[in-house]
């Protein structure tokens, strides 16, 4: 009877709340189909609905002193109200979905000659997976094994009472605590269904003994019994129910098997999610790498555009870098390099692509070297020799190419950036203020006087006003080039030993 009264109260409360809803709200939510637009706002209610269901199992309680079955009235009323509200939300959503699907115009022909089966399908077009899921969500499906364990513990004790009274006349096994007209044979039930201590020979409570001995099935605080049973569920799901010692009761064994299977499925689900997360992270990292590599190729195109590289050479440079996957390998090893003169030349010469490198050297250096007076009368071989010994270098902004008091042993053919030469006038007896003496920019040559054969000690600071990209003739290259130039001036023919060139 208490269960029947609870169901009736549930239905009455649900219908009452439905009728009392404002007509305007129903018009906007159902007739105008606006409910689906507000479904995200009540998504939390659907989560509450799933958490409310297990609370029904905590309603029955056992009075061990009187051996009777009672109900937690406060919990019962609270759960019924919460469940009714959530059921109402789902009901409105189902109605809205059905209404929206019925309003969708059908493209199929409504000719009465069509088969009756097609008409039925057209009429049932509102039925969808979303509607089925919502209908299932209304059902009070148990969500927590701990709550079900609590409920079955009470059921097993009542089963023991029934078994004790089976062969005893006048014994009433199940008494409701509110029914004062009859009483149970407490002594008989205590003797046949001992709990603390228990006697498995008389009656084996199996996995439910702990709940009975702890007193959680009695009229105690709901918070206490809830967290105790919740912990029991988590503990046994996590170890797949391996610590559970069951009796020979069939449904008890089915329950423990179900716990083991669900625990295993949850574990597999967790592993699947971990693998999915790892795959997602890998995919995301790959996408980030692809974006960065794409940005580097854009930087490469911008660099070649700024330096007026011919289209044919552009294609060759990009082809070489893509073939070697230089950007990809750099990011795989955590190396992030700027696209500049040194990077490009290292990339195209790593596998001996000398023709492209030679063309780029000529493209960058030829015009500037032709302005150097000492090189204006040399032949093509001598000119190419200067190009051969030129190497790409980079100087960062505000860095020094050479400081006063150091050997001035390099000639720079500037392709990008600005060099400022400072002279210290202290030696001339004037003030110690450092003032600009000269300025070298793109397309100019710094240190051409070194081709005369003397490497002096610098009396000036040479500083980069911006980042400088250049081709440099260093001391080894300068010595060989100067030697060849001297031979050219004396014999009018440049003669050099190829083996010596290769050694240098």
From TrEMBL:
Residues forming coiled coils: none
Keywords in alphabetical order: Ion channel, Ion transport, Ligand-gated ion channel, Membrane, Transmembrane, Transmembrane helix, Transport
Domain of life: Eukaryota
Residues that span the membrane, as ranges: 6-30, 42-60, 80-98, 131-151, 249-270
GO term, biological process aspect, one: monoatomic ion transmembrane transport
UniProt entry tagged with the keyword Transmembrane: yes
GO cellular component, one term: membrane
Annotated Cyclic nucleotide-binding domain residues: 374-451
Stored InterPro entries: cNMP-bd_dom (IPR000595), cNMP-bd_dom_sf (IPR018490), RmlC-like_jellyroll (IPR014710)
Protein name as it appears in the record: Putative cAMP-dependent protein kinase regulatory subunit
Species annotation: Rosa chinensis
């Amino acid at each position: 009877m208490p269960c029947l009264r609870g169901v009736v109260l549930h239905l009455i409360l649900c219908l009452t709340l439905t009728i009392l809803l404002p007509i305007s709200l129903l018009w906007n939510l159902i007739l105008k189909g606006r409910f689906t637009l507000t479904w995200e706002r009540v998504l939390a209610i659907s989560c509450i609905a799933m958490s409310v269901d297990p609370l029904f199992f905590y309603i029955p309680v056992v009075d061990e002193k009187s051996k009777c079955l009672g109900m937690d009235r406060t919990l019962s009323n609270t759960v019924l109200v919460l469940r009714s509200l959530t059921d109402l939300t789902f009901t409105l959503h189902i109605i809205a979905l059905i209404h929206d699907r019925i309003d969708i115009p059908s493209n199929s022909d409504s000719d009465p000659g069509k088969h009756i089966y097609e008409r039925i399908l057209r009429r049932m077009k509102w039925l969808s997976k979303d509607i089925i899921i919502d209908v299932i969500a209304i059902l009070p499906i148990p969500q927590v094994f701990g709550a079900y364990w609590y409920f079955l513990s009470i059921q097993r004790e009542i089963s023991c009472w029934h078994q004790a009274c089976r062969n005893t006349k006048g014994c009433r096994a199940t008494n409701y605590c509110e029914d004062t007209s009859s009483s149970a044979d407490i002594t008989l039930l205590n003797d046949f269904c001992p709990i603390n201590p228990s006697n498995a020979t008389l009656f084996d409570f199996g996995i439910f003994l702990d709940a009975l001995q702890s007193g959680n099935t009695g009229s105690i605080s709901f918070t206490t019994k809830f967290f105790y049973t919740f912990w029991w569920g988590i503990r046994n799901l996590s170890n797949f129910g391996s610590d559970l010692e069951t009796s020979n009761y069939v449904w008890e064994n089915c329950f423990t098997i179900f716990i083991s299977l669900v625990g295993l499925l949850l574990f597999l689900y967790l592993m699947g999610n971990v693998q999915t997360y790892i795959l997602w992270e890998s995919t995301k990292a790959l996408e980030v790498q692809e974006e960065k590599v794409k940005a580097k190729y854009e930087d490469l195109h911008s660099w070649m555009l700024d330096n007026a590289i011919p289209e044919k050479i552009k294609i060759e440079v990009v082809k070489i870098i893509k073939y070697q996957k230089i950007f990809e390998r750099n990011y795989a090893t955590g190396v992030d390099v700027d696209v500049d003169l040194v990077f490009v030349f290292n990339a195209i010469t790593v596998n001996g692509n000398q023709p492209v490198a030679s063309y780029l050297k000529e493209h960058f250096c030829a015009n500037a070297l032709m302005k150097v007076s000492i090189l204006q009368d040399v032949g093509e071989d001598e000119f190419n020799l200067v190009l051969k010994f030129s190497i790409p270098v980079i100087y960062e902004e505000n860095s020094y190419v050479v400081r006063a008091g150091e050997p001035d042993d390099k000639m720079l053919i500037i392709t990008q950036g600005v060099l400022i030469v400072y002279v210290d006038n202290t030696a001339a007896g004037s003030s110690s203020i450092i003032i600009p003496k000269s300025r070298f920019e793109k397309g100019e040559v710094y240190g051409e006087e070194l081709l005369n054969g003397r490497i002096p000690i610098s009396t000036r600071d040479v500083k980069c006003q911006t980042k400088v990209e250049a081709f440099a003739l260093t001391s080894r290259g300068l010595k060989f080039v100067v030697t060849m130039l001297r031979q050219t001036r004396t014999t009018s023919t440049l003669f050099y030993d190829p083996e010596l060139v290769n050694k240098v």
